[in-house]
Amino acid sequence: MPRHKAAVAAVTALVLAGCTTDKPAATTQPAAPAASAQGSGTGAQSKFFVQADFDAQLAMRSQTPQGPTDKPWEQVIAPKMVDTAKYKKDGPYHLCFSNAAVNNPWRQVGWKTMQAEAGLHKEIEKFTALDAEGKDDKQISDIAELQAKDCDALIVSPNTTATLTPAVRAACGKVPVIVFDRGVETDCPVTFIKPIGGYAFGADAAEFLVEKVPAGGKVLALRILPGVDVLETRWSAAKVVFDKSRLQVVGVEFTDGDAAKTKSIVSDYIQRHGKIDGVWMDSGATAVAAIEAFEDAGVPVPPINGEDQQDFLQKWKDAGLTAVAPTYPTYQWRTPLIAALKILKGEEVPKMWNLPQPEVTSENLSTYLKPNMPPLHYALCGCEDLPGFPEAWGGKKS
Amino acid sequence: MRRALPILAVLMVLLAAIAVVNPFFLEPAGFLAFLKRAAPLVILAAGQYFVIVSGEFDLSVGSLVTAEVVIAARLIDGDESATGPVLALLIVVGLFVGLVNGVVTTKLRVPSFIVTLGMLLVLSGAVFLWTGGAPRGALSQGFRMFGRGGLGPLPWSVLILLAVGAVAIWLMRADFGKTLIATGDNVRAAALSGVRVDRAKIFAFMFSGLAAAVAAILLGGFAGVSAQVGQGLEFSAITAVVLGGVVLGGGRGSVLAAMAGAFTLEALFTLLNLYGISGALEFTVQGVIIIAAVAAGAIRLPRKFTPRRGDAHAAS
Amino acid sequence: MNLLARGRRPARRGEAHGGLAARLREPTQVVFLALLGLVAVGWALVALDGGQFLTMESVVGIQQRSAALGIVAIGQTLAILAGSLDLSVAYLISLASLVAAEIMAGQDGKVVAAVAAVLAISALVGLVNGLVITRLRVHAFIATLGVALIIKGIVDHLYDGPAGKVPESFQLLGYSRIGPIPVSAMLWASVAVVAWFLLSRTRLGYRIYAVGGNEDVARLSGIRTGRVIVITHVLCSVCAGIAGLLLAGRLGAGAPTVGTDGGYDLESIAAVVLGGTALAGGKGGVAGTVGGVLLLAVLDTIFNQLEINSFGKDVVRGVVIVIAVAVYARRGTRRSA
């Protein structure tokens, strides 16, 4: 029976892959992808890849966001506003939040930022948050439980897209719902808040390598694990960029986000290939371990990308690396509360709230590097002006 | 030594297979890199061996490793001068956690599976309560040296591994080892013949805690602070020990074979990687091999060990 | 069940304080007393915090949250009573949810086929577990860990994320309720009643206790111990399969991580021992396990209501489990001494 299912799944995957790759063939140059995909070593395109979303995200990178430039979490790219008059009510408000998890540093930083943001607004009388601990089933119960708490608005950060959709749809009927980070497969939430997205992240990093690594150079791609939508988009965008380039992707490896494993993998590749000319990463958490593998092998660190975590930025500066850090900003955790208040006051909000997604480059590195913050802190928290900074985020007053 | 032969043979085959694909493996540097990588798991397996041969389990080592690294980072916070005291503290914490595991298991008569499962939850919860959810602080260069640096071409971790291995083998040859095996073989018989079984088991847990502390120092040194450095290590360590032919339930197997089991597991990972087996299917292969190895051992076991078993029962 | 367990159970292993321990009353009462106490404490704490503890929603929530774990834990109870244990349930749950959702593919007509397929696959996995343990003589810990890895590899290889679609009709299993009692809780209750009947009213139940109490004695008294262990593993895996079906109904799709995210392997074992079943086997029962699962769920609800973070929760859980088992062990010692 499992084998039969395997066949079904394989066929489904093929069909899906077929569907998604049909589209680009019509719009972009045909033939090239297949041929170069073979040569560039990037493997088959992810079944999560959607050409239209990819094009939209890459286009958004060059659009100027509307809103205050010093508050990127209030900015929005290419908004289509929706009317919220029907949700208008008088304060004070009780806001509720169903959180997928706080089980990694990114979510920790974001969650602290959100709590501080809630403290800023007098209109928020009560802010109830439930942590689903990474369990879909618990988040479904949490959302049901929150509906009974007389919330004026419900914020959801879904643990997975498909499985939380029914619960979110049920909640939409009772309160205005705001979704952020991962989306859901229904447009019933009043607004969906996210930075530009994973395609932009992956493409930013890959384009940097294409620019800095000489043609024919060997690039190693390190991914955390397969099958996570937000990570798949990052890699699939990078794949598109690499396939069009003259770089050679010598390996695509999964690190499980484990620093020791990352370091071992990179060491193996340095041994096997003698020289690695660039490293692409889908997440910065283990970037420092990858860099150390080069240091310990006694070879220069090639162009590499990380993320906006302090340990990477510090290493970048100390070792004078050729590096770039695309981001998936944690300041997006401030926006849902701002959006909720706007909705409850009857002000219009964008249906898709696309936040800007800045890159850390060698030019602006010094503005993001904050040596008094802990090593796994994310620089783009937008939390510097919030009460309790930096101690609440684990930093020290300098 | 004799009992370690089957697993050593398997290990040799795996190492040869690796060398065929990756000739660099045969060079000293390549082989030392492999030893260095395997060192933490081998040390954990040695610690876990003491617990298993005494008839117990230690599921807490993975979260203990994580807790130790997070504690070290927060307390050292980049300050070189704090390295020494913090290293000492880590050793004490490891021993203390082992002591608690051992005392609750023996004196409160709670199965060690439950005790160490509880300890796993407590450690992973408490350390992140203390640091506010994510690791903070940083490790010093002095601390990192043990996992990263070396004495000339010899990595420190390999030297530490040799020392730990030597001590473990010596301990098992000494009276302590005989006591421990007797305890694991038949608690009641051992107690009746005057063995202080509780004390033996408590020491076994303390060795496991100590091994976790040392492994944490090496892993933290190798790759730096991370919140998931110890994830799944408890199962890897138990698997390694069992691969070495050590019997769950206690009383059988050698520490050398347990450590060889850890090397074998690490070699297996390396090999699967080299042959490019898909990341996911690697687990399936691992599962099949573990069951097959233990099944092979179990089928051979009765013939080989019946006399000893008979003795133990006669003594009771 | 208590009475039967006591009356029929053969002598315990020598080291566990001999046959005297048989006179010990099962710790089931302790679990339910603790549960009552915890509800009272929870009520007080939440009231102090300015909330209401036992609202309709939270009562429904407690049941919804515990149903899947409860069903797995019932199966785990059977395996543990027979002196075994099953670490493969978490991955099997994921596999079951995927098989169910893929076969249903959103069509009402396929529900029966999907349920049958899930039950068949689960039974097969249980059969493999049982045979590896009994025929290949591999310790249950390693055997089920190995099978868990095998399933994990297959699931991860085939699936990248949620897949399949569960039709609305089957989602009712996960969402609808009659008054304050969700259908999922009724499913759990019926699984528990079946298991209770099996353990207390059938020869197989008697044999399970006998094998878990002392396998050698059981074998000498003519019980085919291997077969009993295989059957408990099949039943345990079928329970995990049912839990997988329930979760598929709740999620509306199959998910490759639903089992491991829920930590159903270690958590179900924790719930079983919290309910007073001895990890060594031969002593305990289904009622205690139900109490253990409810205890964990009420604890969860209190933490939820007070919005205490999950790290604090882990610490409390770890301590509670160890203390509970220590209390049972202590009662055993005192009574028999």
Description:
- The complex is a heterotrimer of chains A (398), B (316) and C (337).
- Chain A is an alpha/beta fold.
- Chain A is built from 13 helices and 14 strands.
- In chain A, the strands form 4 sheets. Chain A has a 6-stranded parallel beta sheet, with helices on both faces.
- In chain A, helix 7 runs parallel beside helix 8 (229-244).
- The longest helix of chain A has 26 residues, at 2-27.
- Residues 1-38 of chain A have low confidence and may be disordered.
- Chain B is 76% helix and 1% strand.
- Chain B has a single domain (2-304), classed as ABC transporter involved in vitamin B12 uptake, BtuC, CATH 1.10.3470.
- Chain B starts with a helix and ends with a helix.
- Chain B is mostly helical and 316 residues long.
- Chain C has one domain (27-336).
- Chain C has a two-stranded antiparallel sheet with strand order 1-2.
- The relative contact order of chain C is 0.22.
- Classes of the chains: A alpha/beta (398), B mainly alpha (316), C mainly alpha (337).
- Chains in contact: A-B, A-C, B-C.
- At the A-C interface, helix 1, strand 3, helix 5 and helix 6 of A face helix 3, helix 4, helix 5, helix 6 and helix 11 of C.
Distinctive features:
heterotrimer; A: 398 residues; alpha/beta; Rossmann fold; 2 domains; 6-stranded parallel sheet; 3-stranded parallel sheet; 14 strands; 42% helix; 16% strand; globular; C: 337 residues; mainly alpha; two-stranded antiparallel sheet; 73% helix; disordered N terminus
Please sum up the structure shown.
The complex is a heterotrimer of chains A (398), B (316) and C (337). Chain B is built from 13 helices and 2 strands; from the N terminus they run ααααααββααααααα.
Tell me the layout of helices and strands.
The complex is a heterotrimer of chains A (about 400), B (about 325) and C (about 325).
Chain A: H1 2-27, H2 32-40, H3 51-60, E1 81-82, E2 93-99, H4 105-120, E3 124-131, H5 136-147, E4 153-157, H6 161-172, E5 177-180, E6 191-195, H7 198-212, E7 218-223, H8 229-244, E8 248-254, H9 259-273, E9 278-281, H10 287-297, E10 304-305, H11 310-319, E11 323-326, H12 335-344, E12 349-350, E13 352-355, E14 359-360, H13 365-368
Parallel strand pairs in A: 2-3, 2-4, 4-5, 5-6, 6-13, 7-8, 7-9, 10-11
Antiparallel strand pairs in A: 1-12, 11-14
Helix pairs in contact in A: 2-8, 3-7, 5-6, 7-8, 9-10
Chain B: H1 5-21, H2 28-53, H3 61-76, H4 83-107, H5 112-131, H6 141-148, E1 150-151, E2 154-155, H7 156-173, H8 175-185, H9 187-192, H10 197-223, H11 233-243, H12 255-274, H13 281-315
Antiparallel strand pairs in B: 1-2
Chain C: H1 2-8, H2 28-48, H3 56-81, H4 89-104, H5 111-134, H6 140-158, H7 168-175, E1 177-178, E2 181-182, H8 183-201, H9 203-213, H10 215-220, H11 225-251, H12 258-261, H13 264-274, H14 286-306, H15 310-336
Antiparallel strand pairs in C: 1-2
Helix pairs in contact in C: 2-14, 3-8, 3-11, 3-13, 3-14, 4-5, 4-6, 4-11, 5-6, 5-11, 7-11, 8-9, 9-11, 13-14, 13-15
